[in-house]
Design a protein that fits this description.
This protein has a single domain, classed as Growth Hormone, Chain: A. The chain is an all-alpha fold and 379 residues long. The longest helix is centred in the middle third of the chain and has 31 residues. The protein has 16 helices and no strands.
Length: 379
Amino acid sequence: MVFGLPFAMDIYIPAVPRIATLFGVSAGEMQLTLTIFMLTAGFMQLIVGPLSDCYGRRLISFIMTLIFMLGSILCSLSHHITELILFRCVQAVGACGMLVVGFAIVRDVFSGRKSAQAYSYLNGMISFSPMFAPFIGSYLDVYYGWPSTFWALWVIGLTALVVIIFCLPETLLTHHRKIFRVSIIEKYKQIAKNRIFFFYNIAASVGLSYLYLFCSISPYIIIRLLHIPEIDYGFYFCYMGISFFIGSFVSGYVVSKYGIYKTIIMGLIITLLGGIIMMTWYFMTGLMINNFIWPMLLIGIGGTFCMGAGNGGAMEPFSEDIGAAAALSGAIRFLFSGILGSIVISSNVHSTLPLAIPAIFFSIVGLIIFLSKKNQLEM
């Protein structure tokens, strides 16, 4: 279930410059297919989460998977940038629903450090997307055309649907379900006011934003500026997936041994180091593939520390309304990343600074906040 959204983000990234050329649009217009996808996924989580609290995880996951499959088919049939953006919205609705329900199921089953550990391992599974999706996407685009990348997503949806039908039990007991009301907005306000939720979710949002920024700027830096063939793009994108994979599983161990708070601190320090190295290396040598990819390993590992531990910490205060809390948490992460990405890509990308500067800035601010509020946040 959770593969749908990351694969929908990553698999067609290698084809973005080619699609922009075919549709005759600018990089900023093409970026809307990513940004609108993220914003739609963010807003829809606010609805899907409470629906899963009301009707159960299994039914909602089934419906969302069908919508994801429909959106994938429509995207493959697009002939204009407006159509592609619209159908990406449909795809985003289904993808975010699958993701929200998947994370809510984790909280149904686990709590405390076990929950944070499970989120870290789940993020590790998601890391297979940046490790393999660009390879698959570049191959499909070069040999079969960009629409084939969306048919590959349809296959992922079909696989998830089979798993849901035959393997997924209902994890939300009937007496724990909540009636869906418009007053859910007030519930979101109450959840957002929880200080533990707020700060830990900000940490998770920052972690996700690094991965999204890499997705946004990497095709332009690697393919257009460094003139690396598209068929080789997946090789370099894979490094980000490796950092995601390593960071997720290592943070799962770290959080089980040292706790959520210390894992966040470690993640912020690692990300700060990666950002400093990336920026310093760029000013010393100019734009090179090495000073983009290698520091990204550190930024990615630190970011996944923050994501895994941040997810667990944000969910910890809630034993009720888990779906609503997971939805608000996901919405904030996606909206934060989407808005930040649109700001960065709105100006022409000519260096690694659009990634290095946010990594340094957010790490410093995060360390100041978490160290100053240690007594309130430590867990």
